[in-house]
Write a structure and sequence with these properties.
The protein is α/β, with parallel strands linked by helices and about 250 residues long. The chain contains seven helices and 13 strands. It folds into two domains: about 70 residues, Ribosomal Protein L25, Chain P (Beta Barrel); about 160 residues, Alpha/beta knot (3-Layer(aba) Sandwich). Helix content is about 30%, strand content about 25%. The two termini are about 30 Å apart.
């Protein structure tokens, strides 16, 4: 038996109440050609109005633009990794960032910070940057609907690496890692083995195509980032970030 479609509904969900789905969720329900009586699963991500977990629900009315559901039983289910993972990434070119956001969400990342660096091909500023952040947030929502997560990762507005490092100087994450190709860098797996008491939350910094410059790496290290390696092979920027998240998760 197929599972009920999952819909992101950042609203106050109360068992037994009837509500209109938000516009995006309603469009999703219409695309799926749901009909009155069909079951759905609702989750609210990390919104303040949401109790967390997920809710059973059933469609009771379908209109041209409006979809009504009645909220059923609540299940306090979360499918998060054992540690909180933050990813700061030099934005890759073309559509690779879309793919990266999708896969990082599936792997359990809690926060994504897009960065512009010295070697970044993509340059995002002002209104274009905000539109991109909204676009990536929608990709994260769709990935959560697909993979079963009930907490949607936060996708921050794009900023420069220099600004982000300055702002993150007082970050509370006990372990901050920098993916680096410099010779003699300790393997990520070895670093994790050496730092078990600092593994409850991790910030991972990874560069764009071509990696971070030497000056950028030195700046990150000065802010407490530990350089780590994924091995002898040179991976694409999006592959390296996802490989590291897999090991950290």
């Amino acid at each position: 038996m197929a599972s009920a479609p999952r819909l992101y509904c950042p609203a106050q969900l109360v068992v037994g109440t009837t509500l209109d789905l938000p516009a995006t969720a309603a469009r999703h329900a219409q695309v799926l050609r749901l009909q009155p009586g069909d079951p759905v699963t609702l989750f609210g991500g990390s919104s303040a109005a949401c109790a967390g977990g997920e809710f059973e629900a059933r469609v009771v009315a379908m209109g041209r633009q409006q979809v009504q559901v009645v909220v059923g039983a609540h299940h306090a289910i979360e499918r998060e990794p054992a540690r909180e993972l933050h990813l700061a990434i030099g934005v890759p070119a073309n559509e690779r960032m879309d793919w990266l956001v999708e896969k990082a969400t599936e792997l359990g990342v809690a926060l994504i910070q897009p960065l512009m660096t010295e070697r970044s091909v993509v340059r995002l500023e002002d209104e274009r940057a905000k539109k991109k952040s909204a676009h990536w947030s929608s990709i994260a929502v769709a990935a959560c609907e697909q993979c079963g997560r009930n907490k949607v990762p936060l996708v921050r507005d794009t900023t420069t690496l220099v600004s982000w490092l300055r702002q993150s100087a007082d970050a509370q994450h006990p372990l901050r890692l920098l993916l680096s190709l410099r010779p003699g860098t300790t393997a990520l797996t070895e670093t994790l083995h050496r730092q078990p008491d600092r593994m409850r939350a991790v910030t991972l910094l990874s560069g764009p195509e071509g990696g971070l410059s030497l000056a950028e790496e030195e700046g990150a290290i000065a802010q407490g980032f530990l350089p780590v390696s994924l091995g002898a092979r040179v991976l694409r920027s999006e592959t390296a970030a996802l490989a590291a998240l897999t090991l950290l998760g």
